[in-house]
Amino acid sequence: MIGSPGPATVLTAVCGYLIGSIPVAVLVSRARGVDIRAIGDRNPGYWNAKESLGRRAALPVFVGDVAKGSAAAAIGVIVGGPWWVGYVGGATAMIGHAWPVFAGFRGGRSVLTFVGAMIVLAPVPAAIAAAVCIVVSAVSRRFALGARVAVFGFPLIQAWFEPRARVAATGALMAIIGLRFAMAARHARRARRQFG
């Protein structure tokens, strides 16, 4: 354990970004002879992989993207220092997923990487959110809806169990997701104007 906030933060940030930069969806799709960034909605993440390659082929993407967030957050917890060092790990893994150095800085939206980080950083709220996802998905028969409710409702669940500072830190991580969705929407609008 390093313990001191400065070195712990730097080590966590560097490791988190590099782990997050592993382009799981790109690697999986290339093994099947395609580039996930050139098919479907062009997002190199689980949802596009599932729609474009099939559920079975997309399973390693799901597991890999979650694992990136969990591993990076765990490094932040293990090296010691203040509680927020783990959040630095989660944040930098999400940034790495969104702008990966190993894939030309063309990444995904970081949703599953966020989920992985929260499994480590807030396990009780994460378990409750997973239960919410299952229930909403079963009632609506739409996993996408259940996942959205669980992810975007997560800070409300976390607020019942953890201090406001941690909930605020979770909100900061979710802002990365919001930024990526906004960028994708802007890109889609430009493409429609250009080709429509």
Could you characterize what this model shows?
The protein has 10 helices and no strands. 76% of the residues lie in helices and 0% in strands. The chain is mainly alpha-helical and 196 residues long.
Percent of residues in β-strands: under 5%
Radius of gyration: 17 Å
**Main sheet record:** none
In N-to-C order, the SSE pattern is: HHHHHHHHHH
* Sheet/helix structural class: mainly alpha
**Measured distance between first and last alpha carbons:** 56 Å
- Tell me the total number of β-strands: 0
Low-confidence stretches: none
Broad shape = globular
Characteristics:
196 residues; mainly alpha; 10 helices; 76% helix
Could you provide a short overview of the structure?
This protein has ten helices and no strands.
Reconstruct the topology from this structure.
Elements: H1 5-20, H2 24-31, H3 46-53, H4 55-78, H5 84-98, H6 111-121, H7 123-140, H8 143-152, H9 154-159, H10 164-195
Helix pairs in contact: 1-4, 1-5, 2-4, 3-4, 4-5, 4-6, 5-6, 5-10, 6-7, 7-8
